[in-house]
Design goal:
It is built from twelve helices and eight strands. Strands 1-2-3-4-5-6-7-8 form an eight-stranded parallel β-barrel, surrounded by seven helices. It has one domain: Alpha-Beta Barrel (TIM Barrel). Helix 4 runs parallel beside helix 5 and helix 7 packs parallel to helix 8. The chain is globular. Helix 9 links the parallel strand 7 and strand 8. The two termini are about 25 Å apart. By secondary structure, it is an alpha/beta fold.
């Protein structure tokens, strides 16, 4: 993972493409934003509506795809699903850390072999830790023993030991994960909001783009703050500006920025 610089700030912005009543409307967002974001997240809603075609069409338009399906099943089933994702030509995809170390490890081994055999670039494989819609009370209700941050950190360590490229984690958990898992461990942060409220928001553990970057996130995922903006392109550019400013603060103040954000 290369060091973050403000030169590639736009590349660190992932747009959540769970929009549109038909595939052509969804792809209008790709056409609108492809020069303003680094990647398009195709999640459960978009993939269920439009199937693999949306991935292939984004690729044809010159966009990159983060396939956000959170594969979570027995190891063999997840391995087969991961191989299918590689065949689709995605740049990034995720599996759920709660599937266990064996599931994650076998997936990494299979994808590496497949990429090498096909002569393609190895996609980034992420493990989902704890959803940003969940807080301590939610986890206690589900029977987990420990705070959200502790559980997310433990899952990140298991993912790293299994050979996973990085994790999807709340910006609130970034500092501890970065310190435990190292600078090359990729951290993708959803639950990003600007200084405004979003109607119907179900995210609970959120931060602004600049805060997430200063804490050490590599990529941030943004959907509704861009979709609901009067000018989506300007909103995306403003977020990239915040990312760039976050890089500048890290460069200017060193690792102290992260430690102050705990």
């Amino acid at each position: 993972m290369k060091k973050k610089t403000n030169k590639d700030a736009k590349e660190r912005l992932i747009f959540a493409l769970d929009v549109g009543e038909d595939i052509d409307r969804a792809l209008k967002w790709v056409e609108l934003l492809k020069d303003h974001v680094g990647m398009f997240k195709v999640g459960k809603e978009a993939f269920t509506r439009y199937g693999p075609e949306i991935v292939s069409r984004i690729n044809e338009m010159g966009g990159k795809v983060f396939l956000d399906l959170k594969f979570h099943d027995i190891p063999n089933t997840v391995v087969r699903a991961a191989e299918a994702a590689v065949n689709l030509g995605v740049s990034m995809f995720n599996i759920h850390a709660l599937g266990g170390k064996e599931m994650m490890g076998k997936t990494v081994i299979s994808v590496k072999k497949m990429a090498a055999h096909s002569g393609i670039t190895m996609p980034v494989i992420l493990a989902v830790t704890v959803l940003t819609s969940l807080n301590d009370d939610d986890l206690e209700m589900l029977g987990f023993d420990g705070a959200v941050g502790e559980i997310a950190l433990n899952l990140a360590r298991i993912a790293r030991d299994a050979g996973i490229s990085g994790v999807v984690a709340s910006a609130h958990d970034v500092v501890s994960i970065r310190e435990a898992c190292g600078e090359d461990f990729v951290i993708v942060t959803p639950g990003i909001r600007m200084d405004m409220e979003v109607v119907g928001d179900d995210q609970k553990r959120i931060l602004t783009p600049g805060e997430a970057i200063r804490r050490g996130a590599d990529f941030i995922v943004v959907g509704r703050p861009i979709i609901t903006a009067d000018d989506p392109v300007s909103a995306a550019d403003e977020i990239s500006k915040e990312i760039s400013e976050g890089f500048e603060q890290i460069r200017g103040q060193g690792s102290g920025v992260r430690s102050q954000s705990k």
